[in-house]
Every structure is written in C-alpha cells, then in structure tokens.
Write a structure and sequence with these properties.
Layout lengths: L5 E5 L7 H10 L4 E7 L16 E3 L3 E4 L3 H12 L5 E8 L12 H11 L4 E6 L16 H13 L5 H4 L2 E6 L10 E3 L8 E6 L2 E6 H8 L9 H6 L3 E6 L9 H9 L1
Parallel strand pairs: 1-2, 1-5, 2-4, 5-6, 6-7, 8-11
Antiparallel strand pairs: 3-4, 7-11, 9-10
Helix pairs in contact: 1-4, 2-3
Length: about 260
Amino acid sequence: MDSEPEILVTNDDGIDAPGIRALAEGLDAVGNVTVVAPADDKSATGRAMSSEVRVHDHDLGYAVEGTPSDCVVAGLEALGPYPDLVVAGVNEGGNLGMYVLGRSGTVSAAVESAFFGVPAIAVSMYMREDQFGEPTAVEDYEHAVDATTHLADAAVETDVFEAADYLNVNAPHPEADATGEMVVTRPSHAYDMTADQHGDTVALRDRLWDAMASGDIPDPEGTDRRAVLDGHVSVSPLTAPHTTERHDALDDLADRF
C-alpha cells in the first residue's frame, strides 16, 4: 500500500472508555485513524441496528448515540474516509468462545464491516471476574494494543484476509503471567449458562467465567479460551456469513410438506 491505510476505530464500551483511546493512539503509528464510537456503553448489544442516530464531535472523533454496528455503517458511509481496515476495541473483558460471537458488540462491529467487504479486527482484553469493576487505564491495554498494531500493520497487505473476513483477538490482562506469544486459535465450543429463579426474578450466570477464574476449564489446546488462560495472545481467523449445511433429513421434511 503506497499511502497510509485508512483505519476506522470503534468499540462497544463507549467512546470515553480507556481501551478505545489506547487503541486509537497505538494505531496512529500504523495509519490514518478515524474514531466513530458509541456515545455510551453499548456492551453485549450484538448487531442491533438503528434507523437514525445523532452524532456529536468528540476529541477522539465522532460520538454516536447508537450501537457499534450503527457506528460502522455511519463511519463507512457518512462520517469518514472509506477505510482499508476496521478495528473494534479494546474491549474491557474477553470475547472468548463461539457462543459470545453473536452477543458481543465488539465482535459484531467487525462482522458488520465484513459484510461491507472491509477487513476487520475485534480486540479484547481478558479480565478475571474479580477484576471487573476496577477502573482500567490506557496503559493497561498494552498487550492488546501491541498485538493489534502488529496485525494491522501487515495483515491487509498479506493473504490473511483472503481466507478470513475478520480476526478475533484476545489478549491477557497486564497482571497476568503473559508469555508474549501470539497463537492462532479457534473459538471454544464449551457452553455453561445457568438460570436460577429467586421469587419474581431469574438470575442468569455464565459458569465458564468461574472456571476461568479457577483455571479449571474444559477447553483443549488450540482454543481461544485455553490460549488466553495460558498467557498467550489469541487470534481466531473467522468468517462472517453463516454456512449452509444441506442434508437429506431436512430435504425429506421439505418434500413431505
């Protein structure tokens, strides 16, 4: 690429989160960064989409009263130069496992970009459950930003995005015993959601976070959750469209309708 790449940066924690500032500052060394991010925290909104959003100037770029997917569409189509790469993050907390891909606003921003045909990276920093609620600072995201700038600096010009629509990156927390190694992974298929009724409320809990905290997880080597727990930076190359699995049993049901 002869000129600096155009990079659109967004997140789901909101434009005032330290993770997106760390990411924007880090990627500034790689290309021309335009930030278009939610004005408020929009975590776990998936690919929720609005029909109209208000936009405000912000010292980082543009604050949008909408979701991460809104920000990608607005950024690509209206607010900034058309990007060569979209980067979402750094999310405060890991986005690990197959089941979180549709929930995560961070990952959903990357998926939205992929449907436009623009390569994307979703990046998150794993935190233990007891670390949530503790304030984070820009410098806490060093591992995640270093990994992302490394990928952003080279991936668009290589064949990485010939086979993958987006990369899901998860880095260890700075207090973790990080190895400094980046490993290519696949999302874990492990799933352990529970629900308990207490009067007129139902408490929903993801038991895999408990397993992560104790180190006792069912994930084999090669999965994203195992890699991060072992102190590595996990990179999962993923595709955005759902695949179609045609099979005789469903053909038979359709024929009998």
